[in-house]
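User: I'm curious whether this sequence folds into something compact or stays loose and floppy. Could you predict its structure so I can see for myself?
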Amino acid sequence: MYPSKIVTFFRHPVTKENMALLQEVLFQSEKQEERDSQLFQHWTLQSRVNRTTKTHDAVLKAVPIQVLSDRIYVIDSNPLGGFSRNDPADFDILVVKFVREQWPLSFLNSPAFLASYDWS
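Assistant: Here's the prediction. I'll summarize afterward.
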C-alpha cells in the first residue's frame, strides 16, 4: 500500500522463501501532501539516528516477495547518500504515479477538469 525502496532479493536461509530487503516509507508530512500533484507524490523513507555517527541510517525490513504488488518509479533526490545520510529529509523521495492507471484517472477526477467540461 505504500512505496518502498527495494535493496535486494534473497532466499531465506531457513524457510527457503524468496524475500525482498526493502526500505519502507515512514510518513507523508502535511507539507508533502500539499505538494502532491496529479502526477507525483512526496514521501520520506524510514531512517533512524545512529548514536555513534550522528547520521540517519536506513531502516531495512525483509518481506516475502508476494507482498510486493505494483511497480512504481521513484526519484531519490539524494541518491549518492546511500543507506546513511546526514538528515532524515535526505531520505525524501518523489513517487511518479503509475502512468497507465493513475494518470488518466487523476485528470478525469480532477475538480479543475470537471469544472471546465461543458456537460450540455
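Summary: The chain has a mean pLDDT of 83. Residues 4-116 form one domain.
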